[in-house]
Design goal:
single chain, alpha+beta, eight-stranded mixed beta sheet
Length: about 300
């Protein structure tokens, strides 16, 4: 598989996604998936168990946790083996449409409300989960088995090796990074070691992954409850980036959203003063994202 790396423009096809989807199961079951990061040797893989009824946005969250990504980039789910083929059928984020990726005339549908069981029904079937449209990290998700009717949350029974660092350049860049890290005499060894941090490519911590999955389930329940209690909080949740959701869930778990609080203008002004100052002084000149390791100071912005 050799997905392209050029910028692309997504074309959304309306309700036609039903032609590519199986009907949902009347009674969901528990799936066991084999998740393999493509084009990497030795293999980086996970065994993942999830309800067949899990929706793709939530499956994305689970995959980020079990693989070890940091959810910095766009993603999509693809039927077939070639994510950027002209006839590839993809299920994408709204953000992908907003940011205008894909020069290829692929067929795209929103991932919202699409269940995994509508794409995978029988053991042996597989789809591609593509993360980061620059590095193009393709994961093959294969339905290994239907393990029973006893539905539980997501879990990771097994796996091997660490996820590559974000923004290291895809499979080829990762291979180059490992070679540099292993060669103490390489001229870039010191710089790349500092950039990668304490990185062990053989590291895999199943217990830590499952603890995080359990916390994610708890956080999801907190966020749903808070959204139901307050329309303002519900709107806030939709605007918060995924990496920040656990912190927001922690704050909301300690809030009493059913209690009315009267806040006068003076108190509100004092509470918002620092945020307002930051917005006024930064304006639109602060670069918030970047790609790859930097050896210069060009990532800094003048916020004065």
């Amino acid at each position: 598989m050799s997905p392209g790396s050029a910028h692309r423009h997504l074309r959304l096809v309306g309700d036609a996604s039903s032609r590519y989807r199986h009907p949902p199961r009347e009674h969901p079951v528990q799936y066991r998936l084999r998740v393999v990061l493509c084009d990497i040797e030795p293999a980086i893989w996970r065994t993942l168990e999830v309800p067949s009824s899990i929706e793709l946005p939530y499956l994305h969250d689970v995959l980020q946790i079990v693989m070890g990504w940091e959810d910095y980039h766009l993603h999509k789910f693809v039927l077939g083996d070639e994510p950027w083929a002209h006839d590839a059928v993809s299920f994408v984020m709204q953000s992908s449409l907003d940011e205008g990726f894909d020069d290829l005339p692929s067929v795209n549908h929103l991932e919202l409300d699409v269940r995994l069981e509508e794409l995978l029904t029988e053991p042996g079937e597989s789809i591609i989960y593509l993360y980061d449209f620059g590095d193009d990290w393709a994961h093959q998700l294969t339905l290994e088995a239907i393990v029973g009717d006893d539905i539980s949350g997501a879990s990771c029974p097994d796996g091997a090796r660490a996820c590559p660092p974000e923004d290291c350049g895809g499979p080829h860049g990762y291979a180059d990074l490992l070679a540099v890290l292993a060669d103490t005499g390489h001229p870039e060894h010191q710089h790349m070691t500092a950039w990668a941090g304490p990185f062990d490519p053989e590291h895999f911590d199943r217990d830590a992954i499952n603890q995080t999955l359990t916390a994610r389930t708890r956080n999801g329940e907190t966020l749903r409850s808070a959204a139901a209690a307050s329309a303002l909080v519900a709107d806030l949740i939709t605007r918060v980036t995924p990496p920040a959701l656990p912190a927001l869930a922690d704050v909301l778990s300690r809030a009493d959203l059913n209690q009315t609080a009267d806040v006068d203008d003076a108190t509100a002004t004092a509470a918002m003063a620092k945020i307002i100052w930051m917005v006024h002084h930064i304006g639109d000149r602060l670069k918030l994202t970047g790609w790859g390791p930097s050896t210069s100071g060009d990532h800094r912005s003048d916020a004065s």
